[in-house]
Amino acid sequence: MNCKVYLVLISLLLTVACSYARNELAKHGEIVGDDAATIVYREGGFSPGRLEIEIGTQVVFVNDTDTLLWPASNIHPTHQIFPEFDSMGSVPPGDRWGFTFKKAGFWRYHNHLWPDDAGLIVATGDGNGPRIEPLVIEVYVSEFQTPTGVKPEDYIELLVDDELVKEYLRKFGPAHTASLIADAGKRTNVICHDRAHDVGRFAYEMYGAVAFAISSHECEAGAYHGATEALFQRRGTANLEADVEIICGDTDVFFYRLQCLHGVGHGLMAWTSYELFDALDLCDNLAKDRDQRACYSGVFMENVVGGLSGNMGHFTNYVSEDAHYPCNALDDRYVGPCYLFHSTRMLTLFEYDYGKVSGECSVVPEFAVDDCFDSFGRDIAAITLGDPGGAIEMCGSHVPDLRNRIFCLQGTLQARFWETSKADEALSLCGMLKDDLEERSACYWMLIIRAIELYRDDNQYLALCARLEEPFDAWCERRTVPGSSGLSPANREFP
Fold first, then answer.
1. Are 72 and 79 in contact (CB under 8 A)?
2. Which of 88, 205, 304, 492 is deepest in the core (most CB within 10 A)?
3. Do 120 and 238 have their domain in common?
């Protein structure tokens, strides 16, 4: 076979390929309207990289390259976040493909053939989108089994096996599944919070909004965070304030309401495709300052930790080699909540040099120093679980200033005393602080605050008070400290 024959064959193949691509385009595309918005694909990627439109607007993708283009929503390669937003085939050079956005949202997309080329479309307003019905959490009569007799070797794989998680959710329900994941984490020295996100996300997919009623707060409320992310993915944010009151308002444990609102922040960060300022703006729609602050905290934690990023196919642009970014690029009202979760980022940048992170916390804006050391203490708690003496030693050795050290210790205690079952370790932490009365007093003060937030039953609360040493047992019983009128969690800022 000579060169001419090869050239003919190649030409025929290209003709067939282009014909197929054009047929796919005709099959899945739309007739382009006169008022369509345009995104041009060039060698440098999509332009504009961010496009804001009203619902009902058609967006036309123009291929201004000499290569094929396949526009599709995240996640690559499944396109599962918004599967309708997918050309379902290649757009040839010089051609175009149109899609009308009928759902509000922050829709990240990419070129399926070159997924590093990506962009964002923000669709807002009521437009022609479907009506959002009020959210209802129906009364759920549990038919779940109790996992008695289930052995660790049977459920350790919950930490890595999604299909096993779904099987357990169907059989045992979200609360028991999260509990088993928490135990698996303890047995393998794995922090279970991110995995509990998956539990909540899968639970919402299976049970809808009732997932909030049948989940638990184990693993630092990770299941609620994941369920919230899934809720926004399904419903958007058109009814944000009303939806938040439904999922977070019906609780008799104040701390759990705050954690729910914190989960809302995680969910909004995912919903906005990790556009931090957009997520913060949505938090601002909540009515109460306290609720807004709790929401901010979830946004900033998600930005730093990215617990939902792998699931959502989105990754943050709001971290950098600057140890204080984005906290140093925000309005003052956001700065404290930002630093409340930012020491984790500092530790990564400084390769877990705790002394250096402590030094950076000491030079943040004065009104946010306490938040930064609170965050620092929480990070210390994560590596010293089960060892309160180790946490005391780390706060003591890395934080020379007394006030800053007190917030480090309080951050450590809060991370330990997440549920009533964790009271013993919190008591041990405070009981070990014998050398400095101010440190010990501050520790017990925070312990009492957290107990007021957590305990539903007054008798159980008083039983805990009886375990405190003098004079802190009396503080606990009276719910006051010397010089204060009371320790009301309703007036206390998160966390």
1. yes
2. 304
3. no
Q: DSSP code of 495?
A: -
Per-residue confidence at 12, pLDDT binned at 50, 70, 90?
A: very low
| pTM of the complete model beyond 0.70 | yes
Domain of 99, CATH number, reads: 2.60.40.420
How far apart (Å, rounded) are the C-alpha atoms in residues 343 and 369? Answer: 11
Q: Is the separation of the CB atoms in 410 and 448 below 8 Å?
A: no
Other residues' Cβ atoms within 10 Å of the Cβ of residue 34: 5
Asked, for residue 394, whether it belongs to a domain, the answer is yes
Query: Strand locations in 101-153, DSSP E?
Result: 105-111, 114-124
Contacts of 51 (CB under 8 A, 6+ apart): 37, 39, 59, 119, 120, 121, 122
How many of the other CB atoms lie within 10 Å of CB of 70?
Answer: 22
Q: Is residue 161 part of a domain?
A: no
Domain span at 246: 230-491
CA dist list (Å): 490 to 104, 372, 450, 452, 486: 34, 23, 12, 10, 11
| Count of Cβ atoms closer than 10 Å to residue 284 Cβ | 12
Give first-to-last CA distance, the chain, whole Å. 76
What's the pLDDT band for 392 if we cut at 50, 70, 90? very high
Instruction: Tell me the C-alpha distance between 82 and 80, whole Å.
Output: 6
Spatial CB neighbours of 14, under 8 Å, sequence gap ≥ 6: none
DSSP assignment letter at 210? G
Q: Which of 124, 141, 162 delimits the end of a domain?
A: 124
Q: Is residue 129 part of a domain?
A: no
Domain count, the chain: 2
Q: Which residue among 95, 124, 153 closes a domain?
A: 124
